[in-house]
Design goal:
The complex is a heterotrimer of chains A (395), B (340) and C (638).
Chain A lengths: L10 H26 L5 H17 L3 H27 L8 H12 L3 H15 L5 H14 L12 H37 L1 H16 L2 H15 L19 H38 L2 H8 L4 H38 L4 H10 L3 H29 L1 H5 L6
Chain B lengths: L5 E11 L5 E12 L4 E5 L6 H9 L6 E10 L2 E2 L5 H8 L4 E4 L13 H11 L6 H14 L16 H12 L6 E5 L7 H16 L5 E6 L2 H7 L2 E6 L2 E7 H6 L4 H8 L58 E2 L5 H9 L7
Chain C lengths: L1 H7 L2 H23 L11 H15 L3 H14 L1 H4 L3 H9 L2 H20 L2 H13 L6 H11 L2 H11 L8 H19 L3 H13 L8 H29 L4 H9 L3 H9 L12 H7 L6 H32 L1 H5 L4 H8 L6 H27 L13 H9 L28 H37 L1 H16 L2 H12 L5 H12 L1 H15 L2 H9 L3 H38 L9 H10 L12 H25 L6
The chains are: A mainly alpha (395), B alpha/beta (340), C mainly alpha (638).
Chain lengths: 395, 340, 638
């Protein structure tokens, strides 16, 4: 009995394949070129080697390996585009950036020798005398050395500034995402399954939480819990007036200052996840296979387990999509709470028109997004078998 | 006549809408199903066939509710059983259901083998997993499916294969009655043939004792069914031996239905294509009297009166109309075929 | 239409619609009721009405008329316009035309300095000095530098005298051309351009380039001198050129005892000096009493504390240099007790932390001192002829109304006033209008882009689809937030609302495109589409007539979501400080509340209404979308 192959390429999709090959070639070329260029550092070469190793290893797993390779290729290409964007966009300013930057700086500097010294330093740093493309390669080369230029306003290496700020942001984001995702999905599943009063409470509440812009919610939380009720301290990451940074008091103040931003961010995530999970669970609960299984005499409890497992899968990939929004949201939350994280740093950099720092912040945000998305894609590929079989849909 | 395996008497089931109305999708259905027979149920879409098949399983969930009537399978009235007994001893074991679109009947994220284990373990078979899988493999091979199906995910199978797999899974426990709800309507012709052959083989080999075959494709029934019941608006309007119902239908609706079949036979060119004008009644507002009255070519005012007589012609061939057979046959003969 | 009636039956849609319409009506209708300019609306209506014609006169250059009008106002409404007396005197003394000339020159110089536009600079400087502008002495340095071409001439002449034996005639000509160009530019008062010319020449390694640095250095000296003058000029203009109302106000407002008290209050209990500051705190919080004496005592106390802190820091220095033995040598008991409580192991760190903590207190005390110093500054203290006073007049703010800053809600101002004494209710209406407009524009652009890209990618398929999908996915993964920021920064200060909307729309289209594409793909091989294709309709027509109607409802929903996200994006940009700083938008109001610490100080009316406004709008839009979803995509519910 002749059997049709399960997935057949449409004729049109086949036509698109050469384009993908071209893109693959370009991406590979970009990677190799940068790694081999004289500006590339040891870091770059190591990264390239690791990439090649992963790709080679992926051949040991047939279906998942193909998926993995596709994803890696895709994210590498995206990484370069993000790099290019982060580099070229700020440099699109008409006119000589040096002058523009200078005029603001000059306001505060009365000593002329310092002014000219700074001006020359900046020109040298920017390497404005070289061509733009050359500058780009230097930039990427430095990137893997961990050098991101010098902050204009703070007169410190950008990398150092960022390194001190990133832990604060991560301290809020990571637990918020984990807790928010878990609790939100659980609540959504419960609401879908139990229905009735439970649902009638959770659904509007989550809808409300997910519809309010995050910064507004955090402002209200700040006002309500922080100022009015004075449960939590407002502003800052810790109490600046505590001298002893090793003391228990200091750690307590750390936690106290961390609590409110964390709670705000978590609640918002819970809202979004609950709504999503609820509709996914409802959809799955009404699926045909549920009916068929029941008609075959399989008991409810078992079926429910699988329903929720299926409903959770899109939530995992949905997490990737909503990460972008979360990053924006957390930036604003940091600003509202004056929490010394990446977001607040970005705002200060914008206020001071500190281009290297702005570039640095946005680059870190972009890279984090890419890495998070890649990880989620990999996890999703591991847990959902449908992904492994379906290879023909969009990249 | 031997005792029927499945005996349904005056079954009524309804849907409860959001506005708290009760819509009787199955409104008083009765029939007997004997050992080794295939009962074909034919009718337009929306006449209640699928609801009937679900109802026969004895499995009700909102918004579908059980109204009244009895379903006696192998001597036991299903409706008197508690749910747990029903689930354990009947569903899948004595009576099985094959859904219409097999595409979504299987959990896309589970392998077929796991599904097999699930089904078999729920029914207290008392076998080990290995034995279960061996049993399943046997069944699959018997039905012409390659053994690799067992380890596959549903997404890796083609449409036709999925349908056959579903059939195999439904009959794992060799149920007494198999209800096939439009098993071939979603398939291409060659797959249809395969599926029909499969069902036939199962019946022949005694894997299932009897079958209820639901379809809206009348030509299929000719080759498959022993008895045919024509359903309209929640009721059976005619029940009888297959050949009789197809070639000499009595009820005006069956008559019109058979007349609408396009069959490549001699003299077909000369016959006119008759489709039945109008639409079935809204089951929310069931008209008094005969439900087919609106569309019947031979309607008389009395037809709209409540409680028409169910005229029995022969013991085995029943129909629901106030005219008796002679009168109807007379009317049919007067129909003038259009000449080309 | 039938569909609208169906939608109205969905409770969610109706709720959402009501919310959005409320905000919309408020934003559109309220400004028509209260027609004051939101930026200058704190005047009681009558006074404002009086000032408007005055302003018009000044704009038209009718100085004499304006002077007469001011005289009249002062006489008739002496109480309110009394503070303008010095201004009036000034007007009488000066010729308005002269002022305008000077003012114009001042503006030109300011602009030239901003843009480093040296060509325009010299004539403007001359015009200012000759026109009688304030503090001409501050500009003479620049003028001299620009006029003194002599020293450069010396250098170029000496270079011209150099041997050019090894060169071809053509090369020598190039070299001489450079020198001539430099001379010309310097003669045109543009030494900076000349220096750039020389530097480029050097980098390009043109003939005799090794001798160029000398010239470059000389020109550099002039340039540096100019830069120094520029710095001085900025100081000048900050003080005398037309500052904004804000800075003037700040001079007056940052001057209350309360502000000083709040500065000191920020020193927390956990600080070692907390107890010692008690007397100061008590002083500042006295409600009654002679304010002059109060101020004096407070200032003395502050001075004493700051001295104490200086002592501590000096001691800390000593201890750091000499270590533990120095600690024992401390004479002051107080200081010693402070040092004694440091954790022993980390002496350096401990001292550093101690110093930091004390520095913070020092800053706060300086703050407080500054604020006390300004106490009592009133309008009369402005010098006649002070252009800032002129500005004040043309903005029409009598001093009496300055007390309206940061007022909680009252009968006159139902939502209170903000840090610029603006009536929040009115300001918010204007802000809502702008934000809604930007959101709408952004939504339109994003939806349009998304539809076009999605339709074509989904319908045409093939290579086009691959390109477009890749492009879309690219921008889905790279956070649009990042691109938005980068674009906004690159564009600098965006003055127009629609440009902001454009930028937001340009970054928000990806997810719409993706969804539209998915829908289109599912429709692509439907029967009616196939029929149209077989009939031979052109692609664009098929898309328009066969596919678009089916996704129409979806497009509307996507549009609503895009508008909501556009509003949020605009607010985000404004809160970050991007976009037009002078425009009033909802985000900008929050930004200002943030900057002026309204949240922390509990002045909830300065941001809660705005927050509620934004929340209502977005929540309403999401509700509408949810309602439409229910109607158009009914899901099976059990």
């Amino acid at each position: 009995m002749a059997e049709h192959a399960p997935m057949r390429l449409e004729p049109e999709a086949r036509r698109g394949k050469p384009l993908l090959y071209i893109m693959a070639a370009l991406a590979a070329g970009a990677v190799i070129l940068t790694a081999l260029s004289p500006y590339a550092s040891l870091g770059w070469r190591i990264a390239l080697a690791a990439l090649v190793m992963t790709v080679l290893l992926s051949y040991t797993l047939p279906a998942f390996g193909k998926y993995l390779r596709k994803r890696i290729f895709w994210y590498t290409a995206t990484f370069f585009v993000a790099l290019a964007l982060n580099f070229f966009l700020p440099r699109l300013i008409p006119g000589n950036p040096v002058d523009i930057i200078l005029q603001d700086l000059m306001m505060g500097i009365t000593d002329v020798s310092r002014a000219t010294a700074l001006k020359n330093q900046y020109i040298a740093q920017l390497g404005l005398d070289k061509s733009l493309v050359e500058q780009f390669f230097i930039y990427t080369g430095n990137l893997f050395k961990g050098e991101l230029g010098m902050s204009l306003y703070l007169a410190q290496p950008v990398a150092k500034v960022l390194a001190s700020k990133i832990p604060w942001s991560v301290a809020i984001m990571m637990p918020a995402i984990l807790v928010g995702w878990l609790v939100g999905n659980m609540l959504g599943a419960q609401a879908a399954y139990k229905k009735g009063v439970y649902d009638k409470v959770i659904f509007p509440l989550s809808l409300f939480l997910s519809s309010i812009p995050s910064f507004i919610f955090s402002m209200l939380m700040l006002l309500w819990l922080g100022v009015s009720w004075n449960w939590f301290p407002v502003l800052g990451g810790f109490d600046a007036q505590i001298i002893n940074k090793q003391s228990l008091v200091y750690y307590r103040s750390l936690v106290a200052h961390w609590a409110l931003p964390f709670i705000s961010q978590t609640l918002i995530i819970i809202g979004g996840q609950a709504i999503g999970m609820r509709s996914m669970a409802l959809y799955e609960l009404n699926a045909d296979y549920v009916l068929f299984a029941k008609l075959q005499g399989i008991r409810d409890r078992k079926i429910t387990r699988y329903v929720f497992r299926n409903a959770v899968l899109p939530q995992v990939s949905g997490l990737a999509l909503s990460l972008g929004g979360m990053v924006a949201g957390s930036t604003l939350i940091e600003i509202v709470f004056s929490y010394p994280g990446l977001g607040q740093q970005l705002m200060m950099a914008i206020r001071n028109v500190d281009y290297p720092l702005i570039s640095g912040c946005t680059l870190v945000i972009s890279i984090t997004m890419l890495v998070a998305n890649l990880l989620i894609d990999i996890v999703y590929g591991l847990i959902d078998p449908r992904v492994r079989s379906a290879q023909t849909e969009e990249s | 006549m031997a005792e029927p395996i499945l005996s349904v008497r005056d079954l009524k089931t309804y849907y409860r809408t959001r506005l708290k109305e009760n819509v009787y999708a199955v409104d008083g259905v009765s029939f007997d199903l004997h050992d080794g027979h295939v009962l074909g149920i034919a009718g337009e879409s929306g006449c209640g066939k699928s609801t009937l098949s679900l109802s026969l399983m004895g499995f009700y969930f909102p918004p579908l509710h059980y109204g009244s009537g009895s379903i006696v399978l192998n001597g036991t009235d299903i409706m008197t059983l508690p749910y747990e007994t029903l689930r354990r001893d009947f569903l899948g074991k004595q009576i099985a259901y094959i859904p219409q679109a097999a595409m979504n009947a299987l959990n896309p994220t589970r392998r077929i083998s796991r599904y097999v284990v699930d089904v078999l373990s729920e029914h207290d078979i008392g076998t080990t997993e290995k034995q279960m899988l061996a049993l399943a493999e046997e069944k699959l091979t018997f039905l012409g499916l390659p053994p690799r199906v067992l380890n596959a995910y549903p997404g890796e199978l083609s449409g036709g294969m999925k349908q056959r797999t579903v059939i195999a899974l439904a009959t794992l426990l060799n149920p007494t009655v198999l209800i096939a709800d439009e098993p071939t309507s979603a398939l291409d012709v060659s797959s249809q043939k395969v599926v029909m052959a499969m069902l036939h083989r199962m019946l022949k080999q005694g894997l299932v004792k009897s079958m209820i075959f639901i379809t809206h494709e009348l030509p299929l029934l000719r080759h498959v069914a022993d008895e045919i019941a024509v359903m309209y608006a929640g009721e059976f309007v005619e029940v009888g031996p297959a050949t009789d119902v197809i070639f000499s239908p009595i009820h005006p609706y069956s008559h019109a239905l058979m007349g609408s079949i396009i069959v490549p036979e001699e003299g077909m060119k000369a016959r006119s294509l008759s489709s039945i004008p109008g639409a079935p009644p809204n089951l929310k507002n069931v008209p008094p009297g005969c439900r087919f009255a609106e569309r019947c070519a031979y309607v008389v005012p009395e037809c709209r009166m409540p409680d028409p007589v169910l005229a029995a012609m022969m013991e085995e061939h029943q129909y629901r109309c106030r005219f008796d057979e002679q009168e109807l046959r007379g009317k049919y003969a007067l129909e003038v075929p259009a000449h080309v | 239409m039938q569909t609208i009636k169906t939608m109205l039956r969905s409770p969610r849609f109706v709720i959402g619609l009501v919310l959005v319409m409320t905000v919309l009506l408020y934003a559109v209708v309220y400004p028509m009721v209260d027609t004051r300019d939101p930026k200058v609306n704190r005047l009681p209506n009558e006074a404002y009405q009086a000032v408007v014609p005055l302003r018009a006169m000044l704009d038209a250059g009718e100085g004499e008329l304006a002077t007469a009008e001011i005289a009249r106002l002062i006489e008739e409404e002496a109480a309110e316009f009394g503070p303008f007396r010095p201004l009036y005197d000034w007007y009488v003394q000066h010729n308005i035309a002269e002022y305008q000339l000077v003012n114009r020159s001042a503006n030109t110089i300011s602009a030239a300095v901003d843009k480093m536009d040296w060509d325009v600079l010299y004539p403007a400087v001359v015009a200012y000095i000759d026109g009688g502008g304030e503090r001409p002495d501050m500009l003479t340095g620049m003028r001299n530098l620009l006029e003194d071409k002599g020293q450069i001439r010396v250098v170029t002449d000496s270079l011209r005298a150099l041997e050019t034996n090894g060169l071809s005639d053509a090369d020598a000509a190039i070299w001489r051309q450079l020198l001539d160009d430099v001379d010309t530019l310097v003669a045109q008062y543009n030494p900076v351009k000349a220096k750039k010319l020389v530097d480029d020449y050097y980098r390009a390694r043109r003939p005799m380039y090794n001798d160029a640095p000398v010239l470059s250095a000389a020109l550099g000296e002039v340039s540096d001198g100019l830069i120094r003058e520029v710095v001085n000029l900025n100081l000048l203009f900050e003080q005398y050129a037309t500052p904004t109302l804000l800075s003037v106000q700040r001079k007056i407002d940052a001057t209350t005892v309360e502000k000083a008290a709040s500065a000191v209050k920020q020193i927390k209990r956990t600080h070692p000096l907390y107890d010692e500051l008690e007397p100061l705190r008590a002083l500042l919080e006295t409600k009654d009493g002679d304010s002059a004496a109060l101020v004096a005592s407070a200032q003395a106390e502050i001075a004493r504390m700051q001295q104490h802190i200086a002592d501590i820091k000096a001691a800390a220095d000593v201890v750091l240099k000499e270590g533990q033995p120095a600690m024992d040598g401390l004479t002051d008991d107080v200081i010693r007790s402070e040092f004694a409580t440091l954790p022993a192991e980390t002496l350096e760190d401990g001292i550093a932390a101690l110093v930091t903590a004390h520095d913070e207190v020092d800053t706060r005390l300086s703050d407080a001192a500054q604020r006390l110093a300004g106490q009592g500054l009133d309008f009369g203290a402005f010098k006649p002829g002070d252009p800032s006073a002129v500005k004040l007049l043309t903005d029409g703010i009598p001093a009496s109304t300055l007390k309206l800053k940061n007022q909680p809600p009252s009968r006159e101002h139902p939502l209170g006033t903000d840090m610029d004494s603006r009536d929040v209710l009115l300001e918010m209406a204007h802000a809502a209008r702008l934000s809604l407009m930007v959101g709408l524009i952004a939504g339109c652009i994003a939806t349009l882009l998304g539809i076009i890209i999605g339709l074509f990618a989904g319908y045409v398929g093939g290579a086009l689809d691959s390109i477009l999908t890749t492009w879309t996915n690219l921008f889905l993964v790279i956070p649009s937030f990042v691109i938005l920021i980068l674009l906004s920064v690159a564009m600098g200060q965006i003055r127009e609302a629609w440009i902001t909307g454009l930028v937001i729309g340009l970054t928000a289209w990806p997810w719409t495109a993706k969804s539209v594409r998915a829908q289109t793909v599912s429709l692509r091989f439907r029967d009616h589409v196939n029929m149209a294709r077989i009939t031979g309709y052109p692609t664009w027509r098929i898309i328009l007539t066969e596919i678009a109607p089916y996704i129409a409802s979806y497009i509307v929903m996507a549009f609503i979501l895009q508008v909501a996200s556009g509003i949020i994006s605009e607010a985000t940009l404004a809160i970050l400080g991007l976009g037009d700083p002078s425009a009033i938008s909802l985000g900008r109001m929050i930004n200002r509340a943030q900057q002026y610490e309204s949240i922390v100080n509990g002045r909830w009316w300065e941001f809660v209404p705005v927050a509620v406004c934004i929340a209502m709008t977005t929540f309403g839009l999401y509700m509408m979308n949810s309602g439409m979803d229910q109607v158009f995509n009914p899901k099976i519910r059990s």
